[in-house]
Specification:
The protein has six helices and 46 strands. It has 718 residues and is mainly beta. It has a domain of 94 residues: Immunoglobulin-like. It starts with a strand and ends in a 7-residue tail after the last strand.
């Protein structure tokens, strides 16, 4: 610390002499106040890590770009959301609960330019591209003196009761999804950009009012002015720059304009004296810790060493953002200063030196280099200056940040969603129509989306919970041609493009396919495949096709390029129960993921009862009988019994076996007959020369699609 010692005898000193002495006293007082003394606390490296919500917590003033936790200044209670989903194979329906919360977090006590990445419990909530990894509404208030109150806080607290927090930058999260964070509000940290470029330490001190002016100093990529004493903050900034305080609350740094002084032995003091402290007073190593932007603003450490120092080690905490090379350069400069400042000089001057104040730079005649005035004495009409040698400037030194383990910043991407009525694939009958929803994102970090359903053409919407897992989805690029559903299709193949490169398809042998592997919705046709060949650029060729599975033979060959492809996995399908009135209508679905706030993805699905109604009978045939009669026979199918078993009929329908046969003559009115067996003998006298026949199985929810036959019997031959 610079010192001033005054010994005046023989009267009151006034006029210019008194002004000079007053300046020295004022300078010493300024230095004592703004240089920081024992017991005063400034910012520390740990200050910005932990999010707080206590009243009276200091909000830092940010400069440059910093990562800060901030202080929660407003929050709602957790909001519970219920999600009821149909059960899987042999399982009842289940109800799950999810939670959201809204909150506001103060970031800076001065205006900012924006916010980049946001971390929640150490994982990225918002990526570098501005994409959110979890669903939330987000608004940022930059801290202007004219900013309005946030509309969400107004809605919650009431007009006139919601503070605008003018002059404070803060962020508002609306309905932040809490599931990824254990259904609690996570610890949030923010990458805040307060200034467009790095800011010099001296300019920060000036902006805070700690000093009046500053020499050029080291540039800090980021700094948070926080602490219990402004003087301690100013001293920390001075230490970071290797600077000191001069007259008029000016921060001095490095070599600059210096006053020439000459020691002529005024006052009988003889020639100037010189002292050099022992080399052991300088630490052998100096370690500087700082916030490293290359480490996502976590603490980095750089070390400087000296061959001639003592055995000790000095540690410096610099709670500022600076890259590894800058930190290494500061560490080397601090160690060089410690070694250079071992050399001190005292010079004794006449009254004309009263204007040379503590903190000034001087050149001493006959001595090389520039010196800093560290002490000033007026004694027996002699001005004595205690001077410390200034170290030369250190050239920038490159350094590495070491091994960096960053939070994953995988892209979420827009939500892609497909909705379709799905026949039972788990051999469990359904009492209501069921809508299957498969969704994924255009990026690998996508996790889920909230769902809204409309059964009235978009007039009203009902929340139906969220998606379930990440489905493997895409679109058809080259559709397959027609084929028989009775044998493996080895002639055709299909090319599909998946949503992103992280999705994969696998081949399966025929035994695995027979057990249900590789079941996919291709347009409206259910297929299975044995071979999956990657073609690059997200494209795959599927072959060894089993077509028209689970009663979808009507859709074979009806696909077009751009139609959906969905690999069916019960763990990734959300099943939505629909009312019976939805059969024969079109329903609409909206899916809103983290990247879709305000612009959800949409899908439409036609509900024709394929998940509920019986399957159309097969093998409808007519056999002439003696006496001119004709017998009709057909085979029943079951939606829940698909495995071939020799000499065993398919499982009986829970509602019993009942059919409706419609006879449509070429002329005249058609008529219907109901039967309880998969056969019927046409009444004697029925005109069978040109007769259309339709057979439907009757179920509780309605009739199946028709099996049809055109009957033409001439002379007893069909």
């Amino acid at each position: 610390m610079a010192t001033v010692v005054l010994t005046v005898a023989g009267g009151l000193i006034g006029g210019p002499w008194g002004a000079a002495i007053g300046a020295q006293i004022g300078n010493a007082v300024d230095h004592a106040v703004f240089g920081g003394g024992k017991g005063r606390e400034g910012p520390r490296l740990s200050d910005l890590k932990v999010q707080t919500s206590s009243y009276g917590t200091q909000i830092p003033k940010l400069f440059g770009t910093m990562r800060v936790a901030g202080s929660v200044i407003w929050a709602t209670d957790l909001v519970e959301h219920r999600n009821r989903q149909s059960g899987g194979k042999g399982q009842p329906s289940s109800t799950t609960y999810s939670y959201t919360a809204s909150l506001a977090v103060a970031l800076s006590g001065r205006p900012i330019l924006g916010v980049g990445r946001i971390w929640a419990d150490g994982q990225l909530l918002r990526g570098a591209a501005g994409d959110f990894k979890a669903r939330t509404g987000f608004r940022l208030h930059l801290g202007g003196e004219d900013q309005p109150a946030d509309p969400l806080i107004i809605a919650a607290e009431g007009a006139g009761l919601a503070p605008a927090h003018r002059g404070t930058a803060y962020a508002v999260f609306e309905d932040l999804e809490l599931g990824p964070y254990g259904n609690r509000i996570p610890s949030l940290t923010f990458e805040v950009q307060a200034d467009a470029a790095p800011v010099q330490a001296g300019d920060i001190a000036v902006a805070l009012g700690a000093v009046e002016a500053s020499d050029p100093t080291v540039a800090l990529a980021g700094f948070a002015a926080q602490g219990t004493n402004l003087g301690a903050v100013a001293q920390l900034l001075a230490d970071a720059a290797g600077g000191w305080f001069g007259e008029g609350r000016v921060l001095r740094c490095g070599a600059g304009e210096a006053i020439m002084v000459s020691d002529d032995g005024v006052g009988g003091k003889g020639r100037a004296n010189r002292s050099i402290a022992a080399a052991s007073s300088v630490p052998r190593t100096l370690t500087l810790s700082h916030y490293d932007p290359a480490r996502d603003y976590q603490i980095g450490v750089q070390r400087a060493g000296s061959l001639g120092g003592g055995p000790g080690e000095r540690r410096i905490e610099l709670p500022a953002v600076i890259d590894a090379g800058g930190a290494r350069t500061l560490a080397e400069a601090a160690l060089l200063r410690a070694d250079t400042e071992r050399t001190r000089r005292s010079v004794h001057l006449g009254w004309e030196a009263l204007t040379v104040s503590p903190g000034a730079r001087v050149r001493i005649a006959g001595s090389p280099g520039i010196w800093r005035v560290d002490g000033w004495k007026l004694e027996a009409m002699t001005v004595s200056l205690d001077c410390v040698a200034l170290a030369p400037e250190v050239a920038p030194i490159p350094a590495a940040s070491g091994r960096v383990s960053r939070a994953d910043d995988a892209v979420v991407g827009r939500t892609m969603v497909h909705a379709f009525e799905l026949p039972p694939i788990d051999d469990i009958t359904s009492a209501v129509p069921r809508l299957a929803v498969a969704a994924a994102g255009a990026g690998p970090a996508w996790r889920r989306a909230a769902l809204l359903l409309s059964t009235d053409g978009g007039t009203s919407w009902q929340a139906t919970g969220g998606t379930r897992g990440i489905a493997v989805i895409g679109e058809i690029r080259v559709p397959p041609g027609p084929a028989s559903p009775l044998i493996e299709d080895r002639r055709n193949s299909v090319e599909v493009a998946l949503a992103h490169d992280g999705m994969q398809l696998d081949k399966a042998d025929t035994a695995e396919v027979d057990r249900g592997a590789n079941l996919a919705m291709l347009g409206d046709e259910l297929i299975q495949f044995t071979n999956a060949q990657p073609l690059g650029d997200r494209r795959w060729r599927l072959s060894g096709l089993w077509r028209g599975r689970r009663g979808t033979e009507h859709a074979i060959g009806n696909q077009s390029a751009g139609d959906r492809f969905v690999l069916l996995d019960p763990d990734t399908l959300a099943m939505i129960d629909l009312p019976h009135t939805a059969v024969g209508t079109e329903v609409q679905l909206l899916a809103e993921g983290a990247a879709d706030i305000g612009d959800p993805a949409g899908a439409r699905a036609t509900v024709d009862g394929i998940s509920l109604l019986p399957l159309a009978p097969v093998h409808l045939a007519a056999q002439p009988l003696p006496g001119g009669r004709v017998q009709l026979r057909w085979a029943r199918r079951s939606r829940t019994d698909w495995f071939w078993q020799d000499h065993v009929d398919v499982a009986p329908a829970p509602e019993g076996e009942r059919y409706r046969v419609t006879l449509i003559p070429v002329s005249g009115a058609s008529w219907m007959v109901d039967t309880l067996a998969p056969e019927m003998t046409l009444p004697i006298g029925t005109d069978t020369s040109d007769l259309g026949i339709e057979v439907r199985q009757l179920g509780t929810a309605g009739p199946s699609p028709a099996a049809t036959l055109s009957l033409k019997i001439q002379g007893g031959e069909t």
